[in-house]
Amino acid sequence: MTDAGTHRELREMLGLHALGALPEADAVRLRAHLDGCAGCRAELAELAPLAGDLRLVDPARLPGPPAPPRALGERVLGAVREESVLRAARERRDARRGRLRAVLVPVAAAAAAAVLAGGLTYGLTRPDPAPAVAVERLPLTVVVEGVRAAGPAVVVPHTWGVEVTFEAAGFEEGRTYRALVRTEDGATSPAGTFLGVGARELTCDMQAAVLRQDATAFEVVDESGATVLTLPLPRA
C-alpha cells in the first residue's frame, strides 16, 4: 500500500508520463503504482488525450508568472497604515483610562468614606425616635351566640384614624361581616369587611378613618345589620 507522501509524489509524475518525458526509473515506479491505484489510472486517462497538444507548446514562449494588480501594493500599504493608526488610538485610549482610573478610584473611595462618615455622624447626632403610640387592650362583648373572642382587642391610634385588631371564631362560614366605628354624634365610619370561616379562629385587622379621641365604639355587624360583637372605646 502506497503512503500519502509517495502517492502524491507519483501522482505529480502523471503529466510527464503522459508526454513520455518521465525518466525510466520513475516510469517503472509509476507503472507499478498505477497497477494498484484506480484514481491515478483515471487521471492519466484524462491527461492522455491532451498529450499531443502539449507537445506542440513552445516553453520559451510561455508567459511568466502572473503579476499582481498594480493597485494591490497600495491597498496592502493602506491597510498596514490604517492598522497602525488604530493601534495607536487604542494605546492612547488605554493610557487615558489608566490615568482616569488612577484619579477616580481615590476620589470614589474618599466619597464612599465621606458618605459612611456622614451616616455615622447622623446616626450619632439624630434626635431620638418618636415615642411609641399608646396601645390599648380592651375586652370584646359578644352579642350573638356561637361567636367567641380569643382575647381582648388591640386598639392602636394613628394620625389618620384608629386600628382595631382582634381574634375570634364562630362567624358563619361564607357570610360577610362588616366592621364600623361609631362617634359621639351617632355617625358610623366603615372599618373593613371579612368573610366568616366557621369554627376556625381568624385574626381581623380593621381600620377606620376616625381619630381615636373621636371614636366611642367599635362594632361588627352581619349582612342584615345586626350587631355580632361590640367594643366600647372610652374617651382617651
Task: Give a brief description.
It is built from six helices and ten strands, in the order ααααααββββββββββ.
Can you put this structure into words, describing what you see?
42% of the residues lie in helices and 24% in strands. The protein is elongated. 13% of the residues are buried. The longest helix has 56 residues. The strands form two sheets. Strands 1, 3, 4, 5 and 8 form a five-stranded antiparallel β-sheet that branches. A five-stranded antiparallel β-sheet has the order 2-10-9-6-7, with no helix packed on it. With 236 residues, the protein is α+β, with helices and mostly antiparallel strands. Helix 3 packs across helix 4. It folds into three domains: 58 residues, no CATH class; 57 residues; 97 residues, Immunoglobulin-like (Sandwich). It is built from six helices and ten strands. About 2% of the residues have low confidence. Strand 4 and strand 5 form a beta hairpin.
Describe the structure using short key phrases.
single chain, 236 residues, alpha+beta, Immunoglobulin-like, 3 domains, 6 helices, elongated
